[in-house]
Amino acid sequence: MTDNKTIAFACDHGGFSMKAAIVAHLESRGYTVRDFGAYTAERCEYPSVAEPACRAVVSGEARFAILVCGTGIGMSLVANKIHGIRAACCSESYSAKLTRMHNDANVLCFGARVIGEATALEMVDAFLDHEFEGGRHAERVAKITEIEARG
User: Fold this and answer.
1) Which one of the listed residues 13, 25, 102, 130 is annotated catalytic?
2) What pLDDT sits at residue 64?
């Protein structure tokens, strides 16, 4: 069973500068944050932290994951390799909102070297504050799931 108030969080050295602010923001909103690293600003390979955070989502230990690296691209590439993950790399809140509403994304990725802290927090809120609309979008998500199943 998915814990709706737990968020898996992971960053590499490129995203470490935003970690404290994002975690504090999530906790201020009543979320429990499961931290998968990085734990320092020292060089860290993003696949090593992205994979366990995403596996927590797939297993139901967390409802969503938020992954931060320099651009968000590397994290999203890793995340989307994991069966059951629909990760979106966003750089503004409108896309973060619509990826939840239209794509039923369960992982938000972004880059600390691409956006500022205020934008990051706005995107986190937009992602978390919107639900999947279903309807015609459910058909699209089902097609994505079919493609994923075929490998």
Assistant:
1) 102
2) 98
